[in-house]
Amino acid sequence: MRLPALPSLSWRLLPAVVTACVLLIQPVQAQQATLPDTMIPSPPALNATSWILMDANSGEILVEHDADQPLPPASLTKMMTAYLVEHEIDAGNIAPDDMVNISENAWRTGGSRMFVREGTQVPVADLLKGVVIQSGNDASVALAEHIAGGESSFADLMNQQAQRMGMDNTHFVNATGLPHENHYASAHDLAILAKHIIQDFPGHYQIYSEKYFTYNDIRQPNRNRLLWRDPSVDGLKTGHTEEAGYCLVASAKKGDMRLIAVVMGTNSDEARAQETQKLLSYGFRFFETFKLYDQGAVLNEPRVWGGSKDNVRIGVGEALYLTVPQGKRDQMTAQLNIQETINAPVQAGEQLGTLQISLGDEVVREQSLIALEAVEEGGLFKRLWDMVLKFFTGLFN
């Protein structure tokens, strides 16, 4: 169920400081007040070093343990490698059928491999599958060299992108995740990266759910066991080195709710699958996510003084989702706090207030209210008339 659009308020009803409009998602009946709250148990304790559970739409963190601790990410690194490849494809800088020269350096890279051959040419699309499905170190290096001329230069791009995403506890040295003392990432950062992969390049996301990929007559399975066990799971990536242990970033979708789970530092392939499944099951069982407003939804039309028109439409700049405990939706309220005086000119995207969402007495989300359109200054007569109206309005208020 979605919150209804907020009704417009006459500017004459605006208080001296802010406008506060309180909306109940649903009226709470008197007999409901005696019912007990939905019971939610403590989150599961995992046999792992670090973990996090995040809702992909709202960004809410439902469970975490040492989630900001920098740790060796092993092949979870390849999520950023794949992200940059997908970015380059969608930007038109490379094409899926571009042929990539396989260098001796790429061919000799150890660890998990796609088994490309030195001196051959391989399409970008095949190498991307080799990275995501087969966790090929050779494919990762080949793509890094193709995009940036070398792996170290590609790592610079990886770090720049990580900074843009707010991955504050991450630093990349290579495109593969092979051990290095200055190569690390946190569970929280990897959840942020997974969210971007899912949302920024949805046209490529199907690759992460593919169970097998065959190249050079060698058929290799995706190492994510949950793809076989749970039909709601459709990605993302596994990782393993002696330093990192067994790691997994998984995403699952049920109905309109998508969760991202990151588990790092388990002791076996089976353990990372089981521990990740615990997080996902907990999230889907005890929480729900719903959309409050679409991007660009008009929430109010406050008065503009001295403008070419009298009102400006305001709303949220992006779709607004909330994740709440099961059964708590009826306890939510929304409040608009609109700037006391709005003078023209107004730029589209200019912040004109805040939207506060509360669960009971606790504010759980605060979102900027922005102008959804520009309002230019009115003519001289319009500005003078508004000055008079504003003066007398102030007297009555």
Characterization of the model:
InterPro entries: Beta-lactam/transpept-like, Peniciliin-bd_prot_C_sf, Peptidase_S11, Peptidase_S11_C, Peptidase_S11_C_sf, Peptidase_S11_N. Its EC number is 3.4.16.4. With 397 residues, the protein is α+β, with helices and mostly antiparallel strands. The protein has two domains: 239 residues, Beta-lactamase (3-Layer(aba) Sandwich), CATH 3.40.710; 101 residues, Sandwich (Peptidoglycan synthesis regulatory factor (PBP3), Domain 2), CATH 2.60.410.10. Helices cover 27% and strands 26% of the residues. It has nine helices and 17 strands. A six-stranded antiparallel sheet has the order 1-15-16-17-13-12, with no helix packed on it. Strand 16 and strand 17 form a beta hairpin. Helix 1 packs across helix 4, helix 3 crosses helix 4 and helix 4 packs across helix 5. The longest helix is centred in the C-terminal third of the chain and has 18 residues. The N terminus is likely disordered.
